[in-house]
């Protein structure tokens, strides 16, 4: 590595960091980065398509008059934009073909792109990003192609977005791309809060209950079945339903007035990690569905997601019942305001009521929680966790005193012959259990309560050179475990982040970072669970961790990540070299790398964050040749007793794959 290469690395930091942002909001994603990054295509050269902003005040007045049913956040602005009439083409030296266009609509909080013609050849990819490449969504490949050859993308933050189509040499075929609508976001859908709802006069004085508060502890499977939908500029909720073949078909049950079309985006597991605390994942999305049947009589709608739901989303296909008996306990889950998942419950269950047609709905009078706009379509569950209906209407958005009405599933099932989809086995059940792909024989709950007796290791440090850290839980009753959560966030099924070798052992893989404090590991079997707290401590000696270090590989398109651990407020000097020959500066430091200082470079100095226990550096390595081996080491100056020479950390090495 030469000194000028180090300077170039620093100069490309913003662009390379953007490449990692591809895990933000998206449809089904795959590896890849836009040519604007790896081919340095200038964003200012992309021609702009101006979209006239709608009359926002008129739209808001319409929303109020319609009772926010459903909760609309965006106006659908018609477009007719195709590759032969707009944008700019580039052909790169290696033969890669690029088509790009920019959409700009002043004042929009976000921009949604809905294509009325969307077919990608196998191997082609598309991306969305802003002018500075600070936010990048993608890569989206042919897996997102839909039977109707249409697609709606998740909202892109801000009032402009650049769309890039990329076709590398060897990819056969021609894309079909026609932008039919721009969704102009006038309510800031990415940041709708309870406070904003109250500003609109909705739910003032009401207390939303986070789904991961104690009242939701018994309903982990139902959380995984409840999803948010986005379609036609409107937000709603819905639930996955199982069928009698237990075959993971993506049947979705929601409210008819939500009006979801084939261009609907479904978001999974959008919930905070704790009770009103923590973050909520935004990257678990699938787009495209088939509208199978609907009815205004019971305000019910039935869809089928076109693509297979990724196993990493940990979906649960909920059970349902056609019984006409009143439930003795009832609860609802959904996404009020399009935000994170909430719950409300009625200890007295639900009663039949008339909403248009006689006895067409279940009526509930909440003991805690309520159903605000955006909750439409959210499922009503009974005491067994089985679906009874979907949220239709309320008497008021204020509380206490709100009564919510849910269109009845049993009526809809009979009137619209849902058996043709939900009962392919022809068993004619009154009730049918849910299906958990993680526990195919487990049904909707029950089983043996898992019990954690011990863990190894008993503590972990904030920075671990051997990351990811493996935690082994020993105990009993693990055979039926369906999922594992860390700080309330479900671990992924692929690549597997937990395994169950036997009834007495679970092995959990924890990815960095590890903030000082603790991590709570919760193992779940249906409505049963056990949890253990793992303390996370400061590093007692200077320690660094290079993510994807040897024997893994570094990818030059993405910045490498280095974590540095020590005591709070210590100052860490991060060094890098391509040589493992030691370097010594008498009285200052003695490093294990750098070839007698001739091949030693200072990345920067960093203060150890007392709140996390580490400092982190992201270093772009674009342009480094394949096979380049980098060595990192840190010298640390104590904040309590500053003295020289510096205390040196371990050495971490990594090899550039491509």
Describe the structure.
This protein has 658 residues and is mainly beta. It has four domains: 17-191, no CATH class; 194-432, Thrombin, subunit H, CATH 2.40.10; 451-537, Immunoglobulin-like; 543-655, S-adenosyl-L-methionine-dependent methyltransferases, CATH 2.20.130. Helix content is 8%, strand content 39%. The chain contains eight helices and 48 strands. Strands 2, 14, 15, 16, 17, 18, 19 and 20 form an eight-stranded antiparallel β-sheet that branches. The protein has an eight-stranded antiparallel β-sheet with strand order 13-23-22-26-27-28-25-24. Strand 26 (379-382) and strand 27 form a beta hairpin. The longest helix is centred in the N-terminal third of the chain and has 10 residues, at 56-65. It is globular, with a radius of gyration of 27 Å. The two termini are 16 Å apart. The relative contact order is 0.11. Keywords: Hydrolase, Protease, Signal. Residues 1-26 form the signal peptide. Residues 434-453 are annotated as: Disordered. Its EC number is 3.4.21.50. InterPro entries: Peptidase_S1_PA (IPR009003), Peptidase_S1_PA_chymotrypsin (IPR043504).
């Amino acid at each position: 590595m030469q000194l000028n290469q180090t300077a170039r690395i620093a100069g490309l930091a913003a662009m390379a960091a953007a490449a990692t942002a591809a895990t933000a909001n998206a449809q089904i994603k795959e590896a890849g980065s836009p040519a604007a990054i790896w081919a340095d295509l200038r964003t200012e050269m992309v021609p702009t398509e101006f979209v006239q902003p709608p009359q926002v005040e008129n739209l808001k007045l319409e929303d109020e008059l319609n009772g926010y049913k459903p909760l609309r956040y965006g106006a659908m602005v018609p477009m007719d934009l195709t590759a032969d009439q707009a944008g700019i083409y580039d052909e790169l030296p290696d033969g890669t073909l690029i088509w790009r266009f920019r959409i700009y609509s002043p004042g929009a909080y976000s921009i949604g792109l809905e294509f009325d013609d969307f077919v990608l050849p196998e191997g082609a990819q598309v991306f969305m990003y802003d002018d500075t490449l600070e936010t990048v969504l993608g890569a989206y490949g042919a897996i997102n192609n839909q039977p109707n050859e249409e697609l709606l993308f998740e909202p892109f933050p801000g009032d402009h977005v650049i769309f890039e189509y990329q076709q590398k040499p060897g990819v056969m075929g021609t894309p079909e791309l026609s932008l039919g609508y721009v969704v102009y976001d006038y309510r800031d859908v990415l940041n709708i809060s309870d406070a904003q709802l109250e500003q609109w006069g909705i739910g003032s004085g009401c207390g939303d209950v986070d789904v991961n508060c104690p009242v939701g502890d018994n309903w982990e499977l139902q959380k995984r079945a409840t999803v948010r939908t986005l379609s036609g500029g409107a937000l709603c909720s819905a639930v996955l339903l199982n069928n009698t073949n237990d075959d993971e078909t993506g049947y979705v049950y929601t409210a008819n007035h939500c009006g979801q079309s084939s261009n609907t985006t479904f978001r999974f597991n959008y919930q905070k990690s704790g009770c009103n605390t923590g973050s909520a994942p935004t990257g678990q999305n699938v787009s495209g569905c088939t509208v199978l049947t609907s009815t205004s009589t019971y305000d019910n709608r039935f869809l089928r997601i076109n693509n297979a739901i990724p196993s990493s989303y940990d979906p649960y296909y909920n059970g349902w019942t056609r019984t006409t008996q009143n439930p003795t306990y009832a609860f609802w889950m959904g996404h009020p305001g399009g935000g994170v998942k909430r719950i409300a419950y009625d200890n007295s269950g639900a009663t039949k009521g008339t909403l248009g047609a006689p006895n067409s709905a279940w009526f509930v009078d909440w003991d805690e929680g309520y159903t605000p706009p955006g909750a439409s379509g959210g499922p009503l569950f009974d005491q067994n966790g089985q679906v009874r209906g979907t949220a239709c209407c309320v008497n008021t958005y204020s509380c206490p005193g709100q009564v919510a009405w849910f269109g009845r599933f049993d009526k809809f099932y009979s009137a619209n012959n849902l058996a043709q989809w939900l009962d392919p086995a022809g068993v004619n059940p009154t009730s049918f259990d849910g299906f958990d792909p993680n526990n195919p024989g487990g049904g909707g709950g029950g089983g043996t309560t898992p019990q954690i007796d011990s863990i190894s290791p008993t503590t972990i440090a904030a920075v671990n050179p051997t990351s990811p850290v493996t935690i082994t839980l020993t105990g009993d009753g693990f055979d039926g475990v369906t999922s594992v959560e860390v700080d309330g966030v479900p671990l992924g099924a692929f690549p597997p982040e937990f395994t169950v070798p036997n009834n007495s052992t679970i092995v959990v893989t924890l990815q960095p970072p590890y903030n000082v404090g603790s991590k709570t590991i919760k193992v779940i079997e249906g409505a049963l669970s056990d949890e253990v707290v793992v303390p996370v401590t400061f590093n007692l000696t200077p320690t660094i961790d290079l993510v994807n270090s040897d024997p893994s590989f570094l990818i030059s398109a993405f910045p490498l990540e280095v974590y540095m651990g020590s005591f709070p407020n210590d100052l860490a000097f991060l060094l890098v070299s391509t040589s493992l020959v030691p370097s010594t500066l008498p009285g200052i430091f003695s490093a294990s790398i750098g070839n007698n200082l001739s091949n030693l470079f200072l990345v920067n100095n960093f203060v150890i964050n007392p709140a996390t226990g580490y400092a982190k550096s992201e270093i772009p390595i674009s342009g480094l040749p394949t096979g380049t081996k980098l060595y990192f080491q840190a010298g640390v100056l104590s904040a309590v007793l500053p003295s020289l020479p510096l205390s040196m950390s371990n050495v971490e090495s990594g090899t550039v794959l491509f």
